[in-house]
Design goal:
The complex is a heterodimer. Chain A is an all-beta fold. Chain A contains no helices and 9 strands. A 4-stranded antiparallel β-sheet of chain A has the order 3-4-5-6, with no helix packed on it. Chain A has a 3-stranded antiparallel β-sheet with strand order 7-8-9, with no helix packed on it. Chain A has a two-stranded antiparallel ribbon with strand order 1-2. Chain B has one domain. In chain B, about 10% of the residues lie in helices and about 30% in strands. Classes of the chains: A mainly beta, B alpha+beta. At the A-B interface, strand 1, strand 2 and strand 3 of A face strand 9 of B. Strand 1 of chain A pairs antiparallel with strand 9 of chain B, so a sheet runs across the interface.
Chain lengths: ~120, ~160
């Protein structure tokens, strides 16, 4: 579990938003909307399913959240680099190893899902 | 269709000449700079006109940012990062990164002179002057600076992974 994510201003060096783990889930990645004052934060970890939280900027207020599908064992949601219209392109990593010796080949797979905004 | 032998010969000659020019054209960089101190190329300006590189200093000196004319290789400007001095072994300065808009330098240092980066400062890329307090309590990994997605609610930003320290 990571300790969270912080967003700083590149002009002043001041911290603008602080995202911290909640109930064993950590903010894993963040994606900013290209035109609107919103961002999507991917929360993962623990036994609960990973979910995306839509937050308002710069207040950090939660507007909406949606849960990602449960992945097979040794797979993990990684985040997204693409947000177009009401669709989000989310990536997950396959850490399974055919030899059963721990972290595996790290195959990068992709899944598309509407962002529901 | 009939082609006179003279024309065919001329076309063949021109073709061979063009192939020869391509074959013998020297493959080489547009320009090269040698004998620069240890450093790294950071990025091109958004219009492609300038190339930026940052350089680690000798002990007792400050790191600096070089602005190069990307067409000619001429050194246009050299900006000293003010207030950062390399220790005798030079291990206190761990990272110098240039923001996407090329206006800010993000300098990571190790206060103990070794180990992980524990402090970051912002500097103006034009003057080298420091313009932020120390940024601490962040993980030693590199910050993600001014993500390609431009957040509307902010000016340029950087994202750090937090740390318990």
């Amino acid at each position: 579990m990571n300790e969270g994510l912080d967003i700083y201003s590149l002009e002043t060096g001041k911290r603008l938003i602080e995202l911290r783990p909640i109930e064993k889930q950590s903010p894993y990645s963040i994606l900013f909307h290209p035109q609107r004052d919103v961002a999507l934060v991917l929360w993962s970890g623990g036994s609960n399913p990973s979910y995306y939280q839509l937050v308002e900027l710069p207040t950090g207020k939660e507007l909406k959240r949606f849960t990602l599908p449960t992945l097979p064992k040794d797979n993990r949601w990684q985040g997204s680099h693409c947000w177009e219209g009401d669709h989000l392109w989310v990536e997950y990593m396959d850490f399974s190893d055919e030899t059963g010796k721990g972290i595996g080949k790290g195959t990068l797979l992709r899944r598309c899902r509407p962002a529901l905004i | 269709m009939y082609f006179p032998p003279k024309r065919l010969f001329l076309a063949l000659l021109l073709g061979l000449l063009a192939a020869g020019v391509v074959w013998l054209w020297p493959v080489r960089p547009l320009w090269m700079v040698v004998d620069t101190p240890h450093g790294r190329v950071n990025r091109f300006s958004s219009d492609g006109r300038w190339l930026y590189s940052t350089h680690m200093p000798q002990p007792g000196e400050s790191p600096y940012l070089c602005t190069w004319d990307s067409a000619t290789g001429e050194l246009i400007h050299r900006t000293k990062v003010e207030g950062v001095i390399a220790t005798p072994l030079g291990w206190n300065i761990a990272s110098i990164r240039l923001s996407l808009d090329c206006n800010s330098l993000i300098v990571g240092t190790r206060s103990t002179g070794e180990g992980d980066i524990d402090t970051w400062h912002l500097h103006d890329a034009q003057t080298g002057l420091r313009r932020s307090d120390a940024i601490k309590e962040v993980a030693p990994s590199q910050p993600r600076i001014g993500l390609e997605e431009r957040p509307v609610g902010f000016g340029p930003i950087m994202v750090f992974e937090a740390s318990r320290k």
